[in-house]
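User: Sequence for Protein kinase domain-containing protein below. Tokens please.
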Amino acid sequence: MSDEIHFLSGFTTKDLVAYGISGLVVLDTSTGTVVKASPNEERSNATAVEQQIYERFVQRGGHKGILIYYGTFEWGIRIDTEADIFAFGSTLYELMNESRPYAGLLDRAIEESVIAKCWYGECEKCRQSCSPFER
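Assistant: Structure tokens for Protein kinase domain-containing protein:
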């Protein structure tokens, strides 16, 4: 397997958000979206399944808490960036602190107090989503 990153047209290393063995994510600053794609120039099964899921949501009218799907871009899919902030922040927190964010709280409490606020756009800034549980 080659270590070379195969970028989608118009993207370079300066746009790279994440890269691994299963895919890459690049930021399109002009549209405020990201493009997720397999690391080679072929659509992967995982990308195809994710595309089908997003298309079903679109067909059924969408949901405020789900990433907005903007269609395909070459061998990847284009989605919005805002809803993934919580997932990214949680992963980063766990890596830095060796524990899950909000450890000890029930999943339901986290969903109702933190995630729901993010999903429904009730927080103007990322920091506001943490305020219910600040010590």
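The longest helix spans residues 45-59.
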